[in-house]
Amino acid sequence: MRYIIHGAGAVGCLVGGLLAANGAEVIFIGRPEHAEAINQRGVKILAPQGSSEKDIELTNVKAVVTPHAINPQSDDVIMLAVKSAQVAHSAQVLREVFNERTPVFCLQNGIRSEEMVAQRFLSVYGLMVGLGVTLVEPGVVVNTFNRYFALGNYPLGCDELVQTVAAHLAHPSFSVSTHNNVMSVKWAKLILNLNNAFLAVTDCYVQLARVLPKFSSFMADIYAEGMHVLDVAGISTEEPGNPFDLKAIVAHLRSVGESAPDEEKIREARELPEHLRAHVSTWFDLKNQRGETEVSYLTGEIILLGEKYGVPTPYNSVLLRVAEQMAAEKQLPGRYTIEELEEMVQQKRLEIYSAGE
């Protein structure tokens, strides 16, 4: 079996690196500077600072800059690791090279990628990537937060290929689970990704936000709003083996928010080296001034469902608006404080209340 990693960024390099570490043949497709670095030095997965783990260094990989540079094989498996906004175009380009029966695993946050890829390919799979990963430099990544993979057929099922890929991803430090309803797991991950816009616009990272009482409370409110929308819409995140217990996560955040600040934990979080801070993908979108984010594929889903089922979404509506505006204007992370966001959410609530009178 040969893996084609389309998107040699942070997630693509980590996933491709783990596959190569288990002996699989891996070809990366990436931008010229990424492909050149991988061909010269391979891929390196740095061990978290202070851990007993060792760096993972892979030289048994190669990279190209376009799918057209690859001669397809009957045992190819595509790992689609591009951003959500690039999925449709990527599927089209890949289909120009690969047979429609080539299996494609979708690694994106959100729940739309599989549907888009299924318009081009017959064998589509969901792969929930539940981790924080930073691209230190082309070909070099570090895992900063969480280590979960969950995979299954789209829309339902768990065939032999799923089990094989899960075995190839296996690593002592990562949790890999297989599911008959992997989209339920991806919906749960979408709820957790609702904090992306919040952390990006306030220029905060996960480890710090989770120990700051005011930030923890705000994140709990964002999650609770999203969970309520899914509940009303009849969308379940209950799936055996789901690595995310949303109710427990919200309860923990609430407890932090209701407690006195733990100054020691806050100090430790603030002292984390920059490359080990778990910045969300939207933060990188703003930091690199890409002009777009994936927030509409995450927060936008909750807003659309809320409109459909008559559920107000003041938190998510405010966050989508400010994140999209910042991206369009190429503003850097940190444009808003949490106090400003709280005020905007309160104003949005008043607008909703007034409209409903």
Kindly describe this structure.
The protein has helices at 10-21, 32-41, 87-95, 113-117, 160-169, 182-192, 195-201, 206-209, 213-233, 246-257, 263-270, 281-287, 299-309, 314-328, 338-356, and strands at residues 2-6, 25-29, 43-46, 56-58, 61-64, 76-80, 104-106, 124-137, 140-153, 175-178. With 357 residues, it is α/β, with parallel strands linked by helices. The chain folds into 2 domains: 2-180, Rossmann fold (3-Layer(aba) Sandwich), CATH 3.40.50.720; 189-356, N-(1-d-carboxylethyl)-l-norvaline Dehydrogenase, domain 2, CATH 1.10.1040. Strands 1, 2, 3, 4, 5, 6, 7, 8, 9 and 10 form a 10-stranded mixed β-sheet that branches. Strand 9 (140-153), helix 5 (160-169) and strand 10 (175-178) form a beta-alpha-beta unit. Helix 7 (195-201) runs parallel beside helix 12 (281-287) and helix 9 (213-233) runs antiparallel to helix 10. The longest helix has 21 residues, at 213-233. The radius of gyration is 20 Å and the shape is globular. The termini are far apart. The relative contact order is 0.11.
